[in-house]
Amino acid sequence: MSHSEINEMVGELVRIGLDENTISCLVRAAIDEQPRAAMDKLPLYQVDA
User: Fold this and answer.
1) How far apart are CA 3 and CA 43, in angstroms?
2) Please, what is the Cα angle at 4 between 2 and 26, to 5 degrees?
3) pLDDT in tens, 1-49
4) Spatial contact of 22 and 28, defined as CB atoms under 8 Å apart
């Protein structure tokens, strides 16, 4: 992911109300391109689009 894509993702995660630890875990996964491993460790969130 590019730096701008990561910034955009973080902004969206903040907007939907995720906490800082969850966001940092997702960002690390995005940078490492291993989202499945990170998502398996996170609680599920209900997000209304």
Assistant:
1) 26
2) 70
3) 677 887 888 888 899 998 888 888 888 877 776 656 666 666 665 555 4
4) no
Domain count for the chain, please give it. 1
Q: Residue 49 domain-assigned?
A: no
Give the domain extent around 33: 3-41
Helix, strand, coil distribution of the chain in percent, nearest 5: 65, 0, 35
Structure tokens at 2: 């590019």
Residue 48 within any structural domain of the chain = no
d(CA 39, CA 37): 6
Structure tokens at 45: 């969130």
